[in-house]
Design brief:
This protein has 1 helix and 9 strands; from the N terminus they run αβββββββββ. With about 160 residues, it is mainly beta. It is globular, with a radius of gyration of 20 Å.
Amino acid sequence: MHEKPHRFVDLRAWFGKKTEHYRYTQGVAGEHFFREIKENGKLLGTRCPKCGRVFLPPRLYCEDCMEYTTEWVPIEGPGHVETYTVLHRDLDDKPLETPRVLAFITWPGIEGGLIHDLGEVDPDEVYVGMPVEPVFKPQEEREGKITDIRYFKPAGD
């Protein structure tokens, strides 16, 4: 194929290089959320002014009320492991030296949650409902990314 296809049905295979140009942006909510992690080592959510629901990750609009979420609120207290998995192999299907635990972490009264690594805990000791808290990189190492949270550890340790 030497000409640019004009219809999807004409495209069967593409040989050679195909240049793609794109830029992923965090958006307004993501920018504020990651700046707070970077500068202050804190998690923020957004609250709907109409129904009061708090969202994490933050959203600009409430999905039920379609109201603009103008209030930023700190996510305080420990989160809880909603579900988790233990990985024994990497993305290339090679064995990991030590198992990696990934968890979906939620907070009471908060819509949504975060998927992140668990640390400072043996995989056999993780359980649904386990209270956990974030461990942030030192401030000078933070870049404004989710990886500024090194992992979540059992709360109170």
